[in-house]
Amino acid sequence: MSKKEYTNGEVTVVWKPGICIHSAICVKGLPGVFKPDEKPWITMDGAGTDAIVEQVKKCPSGALSFFMKDSEEQAVTAGHDKDTLVEIMENGPLLVHGKLHVAHPNGDTEEKEKTTAFCRCGASANKPYCDGAHRKAGFKG
To answer: Which domains does the chain possess?
Structure first.
């Protein structure tokens, strides 16, 4: 899975575009940092480290995460450490927070951690995962 990293020297934000559901929570919460119409779309000088970390923690899909300068370990975004939580997003995906195993029809399995967004609308090109297609499809539910 591809990923991109952005840093301000204190914190590094990691973005995994393949699991992003384009909820725009990051953009609405910290528009000085998250600018989807610009390249690069994350500008780390748009806010302080604490504000960036708090906003990244709100990412519902787990596509955004972070690690601090002297830490190799990536922080949990919006996940829960012990229990698995299933959250139904209004007009959007089904979010599963926590560790799980996904068994595919062809027999392959994969382990997911943190937050996994499953498609509810049927329009995703990345099934069973959400790719944000519910917006264009006008999904209500």
So the answer is: 4-68 (3.30.70.20), 85-137 (3.40.5)
